Amino acid sequence: MTVPETTAAVDGATGPEALRPHAEDAFADELKALAAADDRPRPARWRLSPWAVATYLLGGTLPDGTVITPKYVGPRRLIEVAVTTLATDRALLLLGVPGTAKTWVSEHLAAAVSGDSTLLVQGTAGTPEEAVRYGWNYARLLAQGPSREALVPSPLMRAMSEGMTARVEELTRIPADVQDSLITILSEKTLPIPELGQEVQAVRGFNVIATANDRDRGVNELSSALRRRFNTVVLPLPATPDAEVDIVSRRVDQIGRSLDLPAAPEGLSEIRRVVTVFRELRDGVTTDGRTKLKSPSGTLSTAEAISVVTNGLALAAHFGDGILRPADVAAGILGAVVRDPAADRVVWQEYLETVVRERDGWKDFYRACREASV
């Protein structure tokens, strides 16, 4: 029996049915309220002024009482510099260790500036030059020869033509020769099409946001010529435990609502515990500074903490009483910490026995972690 395809199955879910809506859809009401209240000058083709874009990222309360939720918790000046860069003719490079919200910030900047965060080139070792420049519809190319109708524009070409913001994720993972095809686009604001003897010139409003992991040095290091075309903003790890707990709680709550999971505040103590474990192992020292620790091979980023807590909430919802408990997060923490079965397991066992075992109020967590480690 053949099941008829629904429209959503063919075209993909949109709006509230999407598992992970684009930023411009998920926060459409906030963007609309900001646009209505925004009376400041806007650069060409920007949906919001630079002030409103920063407010969208950092949060605030509008004169009519509308609350704009923070999308990024961190130094305000970094976001202001990033937004200001996009208002110039310089491209923006968001740099940082894994889990510092580079992709998240990139998406929300594009959504606020252009109203469309989907003009995206995902960088991998196999990203071809066509993904940055353009490709061809080979059926038309064979039938008609080279023509604009046979040309398939890349997200960057579309952004140039429409005055939009394009995104390039994991720039340093793209092969060096493909990276170099960005140089003319960023410096000359043109994209030559030699097959047609034509070029695409960028219209006002066009810019590029790229992200790169600064632990990927040596994968495909950016050439000095390309790096000069970017203003670089380094996104740091959360400065304090409270800030990281806030970030994890907010993001888990957003994800949880889309998955019908219990509210994150019900397990705030476990979120704080996960953050504490990650920060101590990441920093190589306990919170009180008294005990030095060995650090595992993984990054133990904020993004991984969000994943551990989200998985724990799912366990609590489907196999528990709906409240996040130590047993719900123990296995997730073990999986995040022990990436190298030989070296990392030793680091984890030492941490359990020298720190967790002796810490007041952590006995249930210690027992859960021991059981998960068996």
Structure description:
It is a single chain. This protein is 46% helix and 12% strand. The longest helix has 18 residues, at 241-258. The protein has a 5-stranded parallel sheet with strand order 4-7-10-3-11. Strands 1-2 form a two-stranded antiparallel sheet. It has 17 helices and 11 strands. β8 and β9 (198-201) form a beta hairpin. By secondary structure, the protein is α/β, with parallel strands linked by helices. α4 (50-58) packs antiparallel against α5 (76-86) and α12 packs across α14.
Q: Can you give keywords for this protein?
A:
374 residues; alpha/beta; five-stranded parallel sheet; 46% helix
The sequence of SSEs as H and E is HHHHEEHEHEEHEHEHHEEEHEHHHHHH
Based on secondary structure, the structural category is alpha/beta
Radius of gyration: 23 Å
Sheet with the most strands: spatial strand order: 4-7-10-3-11
Give a quick summary of the entry:
This protein is of the alpha/beta class and 374 residues long. It has helices at 7-11, 23-26, 28-37, 50-58, 76-86, 102-114, 138-144, 155-162, 176-179, 181-188, 224-227, 241-258, 268-283, 302-319, 326-337, 343-356, 363-373; strands at residues 60-61, 67-68, 91-96, 120-122, 134-136, 151-153, 165-169, 190-193, 198-201, 207-213, 230-234. Residues 1-10 have low confidence and may be disordered.
